What does this fold into?
Amino acid sequence: MTLDKNIFKAYDVRGVYPNEINEDVVYKIGRAFVEFLGAKKVAIGCDIRKSSPSLVKELIRGIIEGGADVYDLGLATTPMIYFASGKLKVDGAIILTASHNPGKYNGVKLCRAKAIPIGANSGLLDVKKLVLENNFQIIEKQGEIIKKDIKDEYINYLSSFMKLENKKFKIVIDFANAMGILELDLFKKFTNNLEIVTMYDDFNNDFPNHEANPLKLDTLKALQKRVIKEKADIGISYDGDADRVGFIDENGQIIPMDIITGLISKMILEKNPGSTILYDLRSSHAIKEVIEENGGIAHECKVGHALIKRQMRKEKSIFAGELSGHYYFKENYLAEAGSLPVVYLLNLMTETNESISELVKEIQRYYHSGEINNKVKDTQTVIDELKKIYNNGKITELDGIKISFWENKEGARWWFNVRSSNTEPVLRLNLEADNEKLMEERRDEVLRIITK
It folds into this structure.
């Protein structure tokens, strides 16, 4: 068969329907998934895209013709599928989604039991090989389809972590017409404590208001205005499949996603002192400081959910945060947990009696450039040049290069990381300094080298 190899990404399968991903492809992925895992039971869910009904039908057909039973969960967020992969005692799970991509895209994310990811370095290339060979085992007995609703159990589980006591908050939630709408029932369980204002809370697979991607700051403008208008305590924004979440403070300011890692770490370490917490290497130096100040062990990690989840298991970490808004919890099999970051922030505001902006101010100690993308012809040449120019800094190569001058005994402190994207043909720069002027100077300096 002719297959666009580019649809198999580092962590999932994703492409434009029907030219790149279609019914034939997902049928074969279903067959390959079962054969690769030797699976007997598989949980399946999908998002609301126009292509999802026909694609999920063929995905399920591939699985049952491979001899495995299917728990058909219907519409689901990605964190719900991770939850189901543990609770239902299945051999693996698949969510049919293209996350934050526009409506013309679709794809699949795959995992083993208990949300153990299947990525390029952990089985996805094996699945791809089976799809390409298209020579599946002959199966005499097909599997069965079992309709299953996991949503209520998942919502009830998340609600068990909410501790609002007698506090009352006004929250604004932007669902971007996407899958996070399924998590609204969590907040409705606490109407005595929460006044809920919703935005774009009807499913619309044209995503007419904005891309469901809180990492793109333009998508947050409407939420910022609404938070101010409503005089709300916090604003919440979900991405397309609700495995990422972004936040706005009561003043309408965007809260950097790594700062959220620090805030949640404080809550987790209060109950689990001495635990290991991971933060991706693009995060502010303040995150390491906060984890250690609160009695935790702070370890840097690579970017990417499959890599982070593997390191969490290896190092027995109970929480990890990523600059992109992915937060990984022991409570959901070391995977993303949808609205659980919101629960933790509301709990922290309750416990401290501080506003979210006051809490953020305690952690936002330094000046971060944010992630800056550049298209370059030869990434390795750029990296080699940077290593040569800044060879007097501390150089690490965990993910791309990170060159740090943070431990300087004299002079200003700063660091930067340059790495190739796992999903796009770009080089990504993140840089931080202990004062704004230095951050801007060093940012522009490094960018000149990259673009040259």
Summary: The chain has four domains: 5-150, 168-255, 257-363, 367-451. The chain is about 35% helix and 20% strand. The first strand starts at residue 13 and ends at 16. The chain has a mean pLDDT of 96.
